[in-house]
Every structure is written in C-alpha cells, then in structure tokens.
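Researcher: Next sequence.
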Amino acid sequence: MQPLEDRDYFTDYEILKEPYAFFEAVRAKGPIYQPPGKDYLIVTGFEETLEVLKNNADFSAIIGLAGAAAPLPFTPTGSDITEQVEAHRDQFLGGELLVNYDDDQHTRVRTLLNRLFTPSRLKKNEEFIDDFSDRIIREMVAKGGCELIKEVATPFVTLVIADLLGVPAEDRQMFMDVIEAAPAPGNLESAKNDFSSPDHPLVVMGGYFAGYVQDRRETPREDILTELSLATFPDGSLPDLVEIVKMTTFLFGAGQDTSAKLLGNSIRYITDQPGLQDKLRADPKLIPQLIEEVLRLEGSTKQTARLARKDTKIGDRDVPAGTKVLVAISAANRDPDRWEEPTKFVLDRPKIKEHLAFGRGKHVCAGAPLARVEVRVLLEKLLAYTSNIELVEEKHGTADNRKLDFEPSFIIRGLSELHVRLTPAVGLDLSTVAPATPVVEQAQPVAGNAGLSTGKTKIGDLLKNPDARAVLDKHFPGMTADKRIAMAKGMTLRSVQKFAPGQFSNEALDAVDVDLAQI
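Model: Next structure:
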C-alpha cells in the first residue's frame, strides 16, 4: 500500500476532502518534503511557511491559482528566472489577476484594491451588513432551519460585496445566480476553472463591470463605482479598464468563498463543542475569539503556491530557481512546534491572531477585515435570535459520527452544504418577518419610438424589445442567443466595438441604427 504522505494531494478525492491526516504524514518527514516522483516541495512548518510567504523577492506568486502540480509553460534555466516568468505570464492560469501578480505590478493594483477597504468604507458597508443579516437570520429562524451555505452564506456575502462595490440593484440577483452556480477555486469536479471560457462566472460578471466602468468614466456620478473607475495608480496614471474589471470581479470569487466557507466551518464548532453556543450567547464579545480559532483550525484556504524565481533557501534547505512550492497553510496552522495541542479547539488561545489563515506579507488577504465583520455579525444574529442551533441528524449524523461533505478543491476548505435546525429564542417576535433578499428594482420595458441607438441604449435594454432583438439578429445572426451576450448587457454596442472592432464595424453599427430608428 502506498504511504499516505506519497499519495497525490491534487487528485486524491479522499485527501482533498479531508487533508489533515495527509499533511500530518508529510510533516513527519520534516517541515519541507518532496514527494517521490513529484517536482514540487510541500511546506508544512509554521516558521517555514511564514518565511516563504514573506519572501517576495525570491518567490513568485504566479502559480497561486494553478497550484504547485501544474507544469510550467517553459523550462527554467539559470539562477534567476524572473524574466522567463514575466515573458510567459499570459500562459499561466490567472496570470493576469492580482492574486498572481509580483513586484511593482502587484503593488500598483493593490493600491486600487485598498481603497475599498478603508475604515470609513467598511463602516458604511457594515450598516448594510447589519440590516441584511438581521432580515436573513430572522427569516431562517422563522422557517425553523435552513441549508446554511446556499440559503444564507453565499447570497449574504455576494450581496455584501455587491454593496461594497456599488453594483446596481437591478443586477444583483444576476450576480447571486452566477456566484451560486460557480465552483470553488481549485474544484476538480468542474470545467469552469478555465478563466478563458466565456461561460466562466468571472468572465460573465466582468462584462457587466466593463459596462459600469466605461459608463462612469464617460458620465461620472457621486458613487463608489465612479470613484473606483477614476482611481489612479500612485504615479497618477489611469489604469486600463480591463485592470479594474479583473480586480473587481475577482473580489466576488475570492470574497464569497472565504466568508461563506468560514461561516459554515464556524457553525460546526458552535454546534459540536459542548456548551459553546450557550457561552457565546452569554458573552457575544467572545465571538471574535471563536472566529480566529476556527480560522486556525479550519481556515477557508488550505494551501497556496509559490515559484522560486531565484536560487534561495527555505530554512536551511537550498531551493533552486524554478522550484514549485505547495505552501500548506492549514498544516502550518496546526504545527505542534508553534501551537500547544494544535488539533484542539481552544476559545481563548494565546496569540491566536498570529495564525496564517489569511496569508502573510504582500499577498495577505485584503478582504480579511470584511470577512471577519461578515461572519461576526451573522453569528451575533444567529445566537441572539435562537435558543439552540443544531445540525440536522438525518443529513449529518450525530455529533460523535458526523457526515459532512467538503468541496473537492485543492485550494478551498469548505462544506458543500450544512443543514441546521434553529430553535427561536424565548420571546422572539417573528410575526412580521420581512423577506431577506433586498428588493431588486425592475427595469422598465423599452417602449416603441424610445430613440433606440447603438451609442446610447444598453444592450440589455435592446434585448428586452422584441423588435430591437430582431434588428440585432438581422445584422449579427445568432447574437441574441449567444450566451456571451450577458457579458455586455450593461454596455452599448458602440462601447463593445472598442473591444471587438472586427465583429462590430462602423458600417454594421450604422446600419443597425438606421433600422432601430424605424422602431
């Protein structure tokens, strides 16, 4: 039988769903281990993990999304392969996303992202969080229970980020639907991890953000989308539209996974640790301590990856340029050399915020403060409005024999579902519970003789008008049935022309305008 430590982390479903025994077997081989026949290292030690994450000079984040097992698109040569990495950046999965950026490129884009997470911005966003969480938790308590991941966590965090970014109300349901259908990053059961696919959730949402940014740059308003669209790099230059789009859409993918999975993992401990939920109800100020210990034990990110771009070291081990490294964050957070009784849940664990669940160094999770607020407020509401929270035994078994299904992802640690039964708090009035989902403004149908044009009318509005749809299909056969059209719903055809001049020529658009004028 193959030793546990030599099994393939990236393809073994048993390990992907329950990775801790595997990482402990690897740790027994030392804090840095190279599995037989593999071309990457696995780092499980806390100090060694911290060393890699903070050493941005020698390690590149370019393989953060692809993972350490993915082959490089070139053969590394020499003691410094930085130029090779950059020359092949567009051949790496997600190479043009912030999470994989290095050096000045990362710093420049990170300054844009940091504008969203200022204390004043988060404070304003917390008002939305408090109101929405109050309604969604009351609704679930009134029902007597729910499936926590899809009914609460995912829609909640999606709309929180939508509010933070200023996504128009009429588009928020679409964003919720896209996120709900999206696979977790690194999920081996889905083909939707291909960022070049027109059906990829980030690509679909990117089309909407392209429209938002283009519109705000042409017609500025007093809103966060305008502020973000007109934000400049530290040198005063205006980012390309595509850079803003990539940053904002990735926030949806990264943000919803981190927070949604953290909520589910937190509820597991609240329900299964004897007396814990009563202790938290008696003193809600302990909830932040709970969150930090859950982040250590069951953080949403199991691992990340780095590529040595220069000859370097991890600890006292020589690491040649071109070496791929699996950085096992979840193993580092259970390192017995750093944590006393590392597998035990300890509510008041000393120096708990030193865990690495959100990373460390330049690539530390920018949304960490938001995730902490989201989960804290939801847990406060859940505990305040219930007298008991329990997992549904028919779905998940008893406390001493749980049946839990985790995402088969090499990146994300999170439950695919969690069914809970909620007993209302004594005296809680649930007679007038308002629907939790915010009211979505319905766009008005486009009327005849509305002055339709390719320069002023959004594609989404043209699609609502049967006559306008016929015009589009006349000049661009099959256009209205193309799934990719959803990407440009918030833009005009003239705006889209800037990205696809070969498909939408001036002559063709002029002809469309002539026909639209007859409607």
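Model: Residues 109-422 form a domain with the Cytochrome p450 fold (CATH 1.10.630.10). Confidence is low (pLDDT under 50) at residues 438-449.
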